[in-house]
Structure formats: C-alpha cells, structure tokens
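We now fix the convention by which a protein and its fold are recorded. These numbers are not coordinates but entries in a learned vocabulary of local backbone shapes. A record is reproduced here so that you can trace the correspondence yourselves:
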Amino acid sequence: MRRLRLLPPILAALLAAPSSARGEDGARVVRVLTWNIWRGGERAMDEAAAEAKLAKQKRVADVIRASGADVVAMVETYGSGEAIARELGFHFRPRGTNVSLLSRWPIGRDLSVYKPFHCVGAMIEPPGGPPIAVYSVWIHYVDDVWTDPKSRDGRSAEKLVADDGASRVVEVRAILDGVAEKTAEAPGVATIVAGDFNSNSHLDYAETARDQYGMVVPWPVTKAVADAGFRDAYRVCNPAVDRAKDRTWSPRFPEQIQDRIDFVFWKGDAIFPLSARRIDQSEGAWPSDHAAVLVEFERR
C-alpha cells in the first residue's frame, strides 16, 4: 500500500486556518469572540481530576476553533486559559483569575486598566496593518434582575434602573475612562471592549421591542458605554430586536429570564462590523452557561 506523507504540523495548521490567519487577505477580516466560559469551561476549575479538567478545556477550544475566531475576550478563565490557548496555538494574556485575551496573532503592549479581576487590555497585532486595542471586561452584578424569573414582578422601569446599582456605573465608567487614557497614546487606533457586562441593553429594551420585553428600560451600564462613543457591534449588524435569537443568558438555564448580557463594543473608523452572531451550539452539551458572541470586523 502506498504510504501517505504527512504534512508538517505547522503547514497543516496553516492550511486548516481561516484565510485571515494565512495572510491571503492581509487579515482584512478580524473575527472577535467574547465568551464567559463558566468557571474555566463548564466548571473545569471544580474538577479534581486533571484528565476531566483538560477534557472540558478542550471542548471550549473546539468551540473557539470551529468559530474561526482570531481574538477571544474570555471571562471566567479561572486557570483554563493556558490550556485552551495551547490547544488552539494562540497567544495568551491573562490578568488576575477572571478575564483574559487569546489571539492567533501576537499580543503586544499591555493596556490594562482598573482592577485585575475586571479588565485586561492589550494591543493585538494582526498582519498587514496597524494593531487593534482589545479589552476583555467583566462588570459585576448587584441585583439579579435577569436570573430569577419572578424578580421583575411589580417593578417599574425606574425601579429596575435604580436597583441595577450605581456602583456598576461607577465601575464601567472607570474602565472606559482608563481605556480612553491608554488609547489616547495611539491616536486613530481601533478599540474593542468586549465581555460579560451582566447587564441588559438599553438598545433592546426600546419602544420598538416593547411587545417582547414589556417595558422600555434605559439600562445604565450599556448607556454609559454608548455615551463613551462605543457602538454595539451585534445590534449594528442585527438592528431588528429578536429576544429569542439575541439572548446570551442562558443556554443552560432556560427557566431563567432570557436576555442579551454579553457584548462586543467598538470605537474608531479603522474597523467596521460585517456580521455578528450568537453561538450556543456544539457537539455534545454546550460547555458554558453563557452563549458566545462572534463579530467579524473589516479593517479599513
């Protein structure tokens, strides 16, 4: 029998990678994924056995690989980031235990601001063009207005906003102010802020979608992001609100309030979103309590 000659591992990986990774288009398209992977990937951090932990980390890597993502803003990394990055052949930049960045391209200058548990930022260096400032963030929750299915009973929009927590607005503004200061050192750079904001969107709870949400709510966390000049890539690409299609919380807990709480925001004219979609299906059980959000940006 004639033997098949195996391709060198590096060449095989390049042939299997999306065209942007191979440089065929000079990385004109940058695919950014944000994903809260649930305590290291379906609670991998709670596994005592190393083999069981690695198996769950590999399932997360499989989802990322299948998505074609070039950059990942990861939340609830919890010790799994290095193993996942190794599976993908990606660069890895953690900060604290929670948030991290993974990238198929080099991760350059650190741009992190605020507290390590809440924010990590860096310059991502795709081929054929200027770097992109990317941040992975996590905003804490005060009142579970989107988890307990009865938590909104009898509460007005004003009450929901008040209960959302002034401390959360202080938190997100501190991050955004820090981002503005860091990126001011590189004028014209495109900036992406992505992650789990544990907040609903004021763009979803709008008058045009009152029939889906039952009320209009100016959620203050996403409004603060918009006031800082950032745009919601998912909503730009999907302007018609569809609560069932849009939700990122929660594919694992359908009995809870279903809402969009994971976002990819961007600022700057150097990139523009071509498409954005939710991902919550994989072979076997989905390995997180959050859906992932994938945005394809065109570099201009």
About this structure: The chain has a mean pLDDT of 92. Residues 105 and 126 are 6 Å apart (CA to CA). The chain has one domain: 26-299. The longest strand covers residues 271-279.
